[in-house]
Amino acid sequence: MFQEIINNVREKLPLVHNITNYVTVNDCANIVLACGGAPIMADDIGEVEQITSICTSLVINIGTLNERTIKSMFAAGKKANELSHPTVLDPVGAGASTLRTNTALSLVKEVKFSVIRGNISEIKCIANEAAKTKGVEADEGDLVGSDNLDETVALAKRLSAQTEAVIAITGPIDIVANSQKAYIIKNGHPMMSKITGAGCMLSSLIGAFCGANSENLLAATAAAVCAMGICGEIAYEKAVQSGGGTSSFRMHLIDAMSNLDAATLGGGAKIEIR
Fold first, then answer.
1. 153-168 b/e with 16+ CB inside 10 Å = b?
2. Cα dihedral: 222, 249, 60, 26 (round 10)
3. Domains of the chain, first to last
4. DSSP structure class, residue 36
5. What angle do CA 195, 197, 202 make, to 5 degrees?
6. How far is 94 from 255, CA to CA, in rounded Å?
7. Are 21 and 100 in contact (CB under 8 A)?
8. Radius of gyration over alpha carbons of the chain, in Å?
9. pLDDT digit string (tens) for 23-79?
10. pLDDT over 70, % of the chain
């Protein structure tokens, strides 16, 4: 199934509207291009509804939140809902400040999201459960491991039932779930946490995969998470071979996505279904 999903991305060339943060905007655009989609990065209230109308999907990322773009996020989200476009929320740093938390919770209340992707601390905040953050990073005590995997899967399914969104929790172990089914994904490499924007890139990638596979959002999201993890594994090998570090790793990550084919994705996915 994942092979068909990535082939659809390459063939349908989804146009993804990103209202994202200015720290990672260039990487988000490049990862969408690398997977076979096309990005539009537009966040002014004067055009977001029109831009969303011509796109295939919408990604809202609150990483560098400000009052100007908050209005744009709500306007674009509601327009995407009106048009039944897949809509992705990345609640970066939810729980770290009152503004971030209130904005994320209000977005979830007023916009129907197809996918909500975040680290475990951010997802716990969206679910109104006790969580700790270290700025925009997950607290180490929250990270998903074998000891808390079952309860985290249950959390994801429960939140999906409440929001009607696919829930993607990313970290050392990734979980992608709706209310009935969860993918446990063990692709990736620890160096992915050492570059700025890996999570933001993934959210934009999910926007492209869902835009090209709107009839199967759960599998499309899981495929995007697997694809990003596999590319992280490839990028680490390339960086080591070249004697490079984190900057080389970022470059090789985007290269790997541009070269990723259906066979590599299907053969490299490390998944368990629950």
1. bebbbebbeebebbbb
2. -140
3. 2-273 (3.40.1190.20)
4. T
5. 120
6. 31
7. no
8. 17
9. 999 999 999 999 999 999 999 999 999 999 999 999 999 999 999 999 999 999 999
10. 95
What's the predicted TM-score (pTM) here?
0.94
Q: Which two tokens stand for residue 128?
A: 């109104």
Longest alpha-carbon distance in the chain: 50
Token output for 153 = 């899967």
Range list of β-strands (E), the chain: 15-19, 38-41, 57-61, 87-90, 115-118, 133-134, 137-138, 166-169, 174-177, 182-185, 271-273
% of the chain exceeding 90 in pLDDT: 92
Residue 201: what pLDDT? 98
Q: Please enumerate in sequence order all residues whose Cβ is within 8 A of that of 102, keeping only pairs 6 or more positions apart, or say none.
A: none
